[in-house]
Amino acid sequence: MGDQGGTMSDVSQGAGWWQASDGKWYAPEQQSNDQPPAPPPAPGPPAGPSGAVPGPGPGPGPGVSLPPFSFDFKRWSQAERITVVGTLLLFISLFLPWFTYNFAFGSVSVDGLWHGWMYLVLILCLAILAYLVARAGFSEMPFKLPMADEQLLLIATGVNAVLSILAFLFKPGGIGFSGIGWGFGAFVGLAASIIAAAPLAIPAIKARRH
Known about the structure:
- With 210 residues, the protein is an alpha+beta fold.
- It is 41% helix and 10% strand.
- The N and C termini lie far apart (110 Å).
């Protein structure tokens, strides 16, 4: 039922009629006066400089980014510089003639990898050089080692020295076999392995004595 002026009704009377919070329907001309104000819009994300609402940015990647690489040999200590030179010479010597055999019509030779265990020396040389290059390239190492740097280098260079000495002594014909001699690479490799280990081993031995 509508009111006396026909401006309110229990049901809609046509286009433009609107329903108030009391459940009644009112004529269009009363909308500006009687209709409750519309609720304010829900707050949203701030618009960007161009007016567009920024979307979610890319999330952090699954891995940790590496620090910038900038090679600086000054990051090496004096002992590490000697170790680099000695290890590099040892690596090169493995491909030089270590043992030679002279016979009536000429001579033959084999390189430092003739002994199978010298492949371990080859791998350790690469690992030592790669590690020291990383030490010189990163101000902070991107990975952690299970022990101190000096201890790891001492172990690796010490193993290389021991295996190189054994390879020098055990010629293909055995100790004392006169038919086979040492080549140039054997002397280079032996000296280089000792040079690489000495600057790390000598301080460790002195510290142990004290």
